[in-house]
Structure to design on (597 residues):
């Protein structure tokens, strides 16, 4: 169930990267809400700005190259962007935690994993015996067997899946309200991916935590998320409940993505790809950024940036022709 | 554990035992003149012979061990600390801090190492303390560059991002996560630097700029013996061999340490 109310709210977020040729907007006018106790998916291709969104939320943008030029990020009403660095540090790890893509590199290679979990706890005021108990608790929570012995292991002694569990344990140690997961399964084998996703789901159930899951994998979204937002070239093009978006996509880009999934049942032998490639963020086409690849583009698409409009219950899309799309069936 | 690490450690321990226990056995009075015993060849009474002032060469070599180990230590440690600090901060913060630190290092490195150390000692005056100051002032550059490049690589690693995502302060990230990860390289470099600094100390002693006679420093002893090299080669030879032994010990130690830590870390 999508708990009670909004926990994390992103409004009109615009983040620019400074380059020799001026500011390049990596994220433009992105708004979405993550509810309490839900897993919210943010999907898009590489370079669509999804990681920039997550880094904007937790304040880890590369400095001084990237800058938030507009918008707000609110956690339970608290504006994170206006916090000073010291206050933001207390939020990080405490109320908002993050899991990274590659567990091979996101753990410190020279510290035993138990110490790495404990360090986060100490930083948020839990020490001594309480910390030790908590270390073992989160280790078993994320499904690391034989925790008392394993806590002395170094990252290189563990498999990729176990390392990602450790990374999740570190993130969970101080009981955050929101977990930001940046492609947490991309670097893992498919069978391990499945285990990690199931782990995220069960953690959400047990802890009532919210998860913002960034991925390029629609299968991951289908398996774990309640709601999903689709990003293209720095903007949200569609947002809604996963079941609705997947069964009746209301943006030609989402339709293209879903159609390009290699399906076993359809018996097709060739992949159906979206023609063309994503545009250069420094020189976006006028109007709708997707129009150059869009099978149903019309002249007006070059004139206005389509706003996100209602396409049914909780379902928004940024396509001028979404009403026509809604009626047709693939 | 690699054999070279065991051998190096064992050899170094042996040197330390000799350096500490040797003076207790052979006495610490190695400066009193016994002119009647001058230039005696090695014998059962003087295993390494005597020098031109009749002093026992073995006793002086043994007493010199602690002097030269100290020279190595006090030359390496300040350079290591200063270099790691400057290199680490330069790489972590980047920008003008990086430019300033690295151009300063470039200027220092532009001069030949030896010449610059000798020049500084000559200005400050001969003696070990001034030599330490000179070595630290010049030697930090190697460590700074090494640590800087290591930190630049480590900074890109996700675990630094992950540490930041947990709200850790810069100080904690540098001290607890970056230093242990990059310190290994600097430490391995320091073991070979240790030998070079002992050689440097001996060279300065030889030139009369380091330890001053009659101190039992190996370089000074070699310098003293060179006038008698044809009649009494033992005066210079034994301190020279002692330097070789310490050099081998630290080379083995450095090699072994590099193998050992690399395996532990990157397997």
């Amino acid at each position: 169930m999508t708990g009670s109310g909004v926990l994390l709210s992103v409004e009109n977020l615009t983040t620019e990267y400074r380059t020799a040729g001026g500011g390049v907007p990596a994220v433009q006018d992105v708004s979405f809400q993550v509810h309490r106790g839900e897993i919210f998916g943010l999907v898009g291709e590489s370079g669509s700005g999804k990681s920039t969104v997550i880094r904007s939320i937790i304040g880890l943008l590369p400095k001084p190259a990237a800058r938030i030029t507009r918008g707000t990020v609110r956690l339970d009403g608290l504006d994170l962007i206006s916090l000073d660095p010291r206050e933001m540090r207390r939020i990080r790890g405490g109320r908002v935690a993050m899991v990274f893509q590659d567990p091979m590199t996101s753990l410190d290679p020279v510290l035993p994993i138990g110490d790495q979990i404990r360090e986060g706890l100490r930083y948020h005021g839990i020490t001594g015996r309480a910390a030790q108990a908590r270390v073992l608790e989160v280790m078993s929570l994320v499904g690391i067997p034989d925790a008392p012995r394993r806590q002395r292991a170094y990252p290189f002694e563990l498999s990729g899946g176990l390392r990602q569990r450790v990374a999740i344990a570190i993130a969970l140690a101080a009981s955050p309200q929101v977990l930001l997961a940046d492609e947490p399964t991309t670097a893992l084998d498919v069978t391990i991916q499945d285990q990690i996703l199931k782990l995220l789901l069960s953690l959400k159930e047990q802890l009532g935590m919210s998860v913002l899951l960034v991925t390029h994998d629609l299968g991951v979204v289908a398996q774990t998320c309640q709601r999903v937002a689709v990003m293209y070239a720095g903007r949200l093009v569609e947002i809604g409940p996963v079941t609705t978006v997947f069964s009746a996509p209301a943006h030609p880009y989402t339709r293209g993505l879903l159609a390009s999934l290699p399906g076993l049942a359809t018996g097709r032998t060739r992949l159906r790809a979206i023609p063309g490639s994503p545009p250069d963020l420094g020189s976006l086409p006028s109007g709708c950024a997707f129009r150059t690849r869009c099978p149903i583009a019309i002249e007006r698409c070059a004139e206005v940036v389509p706003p996100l409009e209602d396409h049914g219950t909780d379902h928004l899309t940024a396509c001028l022709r979404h009403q026509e799309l809604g009626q047709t069936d693939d | 554990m690699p054999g070279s690490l065991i051998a190096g450690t064992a050899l170094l321990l042996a040197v330390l035992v000799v350096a500490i226990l040797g003076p207790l056995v052979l006495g610490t009075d190695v400066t009193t003149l016994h002119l009647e015993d001058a230039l005696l060849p090695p014998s059962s009474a003087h295993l390494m012979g005597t020098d031109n002032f009749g002093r026992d060469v073995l006793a002086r070599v043994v007493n010199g061990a602690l002097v030269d180990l100290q020279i190595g230590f006090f030359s390496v440690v300040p350079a290591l600390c200063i270099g790691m600090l400057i290199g680490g901060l330069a790489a972590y913060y980047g920008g003008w801090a990086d430019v300033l630190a690295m151009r300063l290092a470039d200027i220092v490195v532009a001069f030949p190492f030896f010449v610059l150390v000798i020049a500084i000692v000559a200005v400050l005056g001969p003696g070990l303390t001034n030599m330490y100051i000179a070595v630290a002032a010049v030697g930090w550059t190697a460590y700074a560059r090494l640590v800087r490049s290591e930190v630049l690589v480590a900074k890109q690693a996700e675990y630094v991002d992950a540490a930041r995502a947990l709200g850790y302060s810069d100080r904690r990230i540098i001290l607890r996560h970056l230093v242990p990860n990059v310190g290994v390289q600097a430490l391995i470099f320091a073991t070979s630097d240790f030998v070079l600094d002992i050689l440097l100390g001996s060279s300065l002693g030889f030139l009369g700029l380091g330890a001053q006679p009659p101190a039992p420093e190996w370089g000074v002893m070699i310098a003293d013996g060179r006038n008698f090299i044809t009649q009494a080669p033992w005066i210079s030879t034994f301190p020279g061999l002692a330097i070789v032994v310490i050099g081998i010990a630290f080379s083995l130690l450095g090699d072994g340490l590099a193998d050992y830590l690399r395996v532990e870390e990157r397997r």
Remarks:
- Residues 190-207 of chain A form the longest helix (18 residues).
